[in-house]
Amino acid sequence: MLELVEDAPVPEPGEGQSLIRVSRAGVNFADTHARENTYLARYELPLIPGAEVAGVDESGQRVVALVGTGGELGRIAALAINRGDFLMVVACVLYAGYTVALQRRPPVAALSLFMALAGAALVASLPLVALEAASGVLQWPTATGWLIVVLTVVFPSFLAQMFFIRGVELIGPGRAGVFINLVPVFASILAVAVLSESFAVFQAIALGLVLGGIWLSELGKR
């Protein structure tokens, strides 16, 4: 369970580090499983969850920070990556390979290709489900969870993949891959529209840079 600790010792920042008085911290899916020691990466318990924090530093300046790198700016400057970073890089490389391979796929309908990929994914997931069940950490979805599963199957899995496959056919893998950068754009829009999250100026600037980059990549390609 989560427990509020008010008498925790104040850490001493080392060289190149800054002490932040945290006023807000995100506790997400990964943190929930980490505190139960059921996450992919194992941690020593008890632990302090929340890798995204906001607060003020020792000078009173308001700051936000991502502490997944251990709070060490040197690791970011040296491009040191942790296990999660490495897995995301591998995932991006594999998805890039998948995008290129779509251009050379067998002459079959997009629906047939999707069904084959979905079937292979189902078979590959069965040993992992069995492993979770054997280890005693298998959790079946609630009613809300099943609704999320259905929505995930219909929209980001089926419809998105069908449109993506067709898009690669029409404009090629190089141009189609660039549009993946629109994911954070639409995620921000949906977060505001569905979750009533606030939209800050820095987010507008970031989205503008994404759209500008896509526009530059499309110059002269039509």
Number of structural units classed as domains: 2
* Shape descriptor: globular
Helical content, roughly? 55-70%
How would you sum up the major sheet? Answer: 3 strands, antiparallel
| Amount of beta strand | 5-15%
- List SSEs in N-to-C order: EHEEHHHHHH
Number of helices: 7
- According to DSSP, the number of beta strands is 3
Structural class: mainly alpha
Tell me the strand order in the biggest sheet: 1-2-3
Q: Using the CA coordinates, give the radius of gyration.
A: 22 Å
The end-to-end span amounts to 56 Å
Explain how this protein is built:
- The protein has a three-stranded antiparallel β-sheet, with no helix packed on it.
- It has seven helices and three strands, in the order βαββαααααα.
- It is 56% helix and 8% strand.
- With 222 residues, the chain is mainly alpha-helical.
- The chain folds into two domains: 58 residues, no CATH class; 136 residues, no CATH class.
- The chain is globular, with a radius of gyration of 22 Å.
- The longest helix has 36 residues.
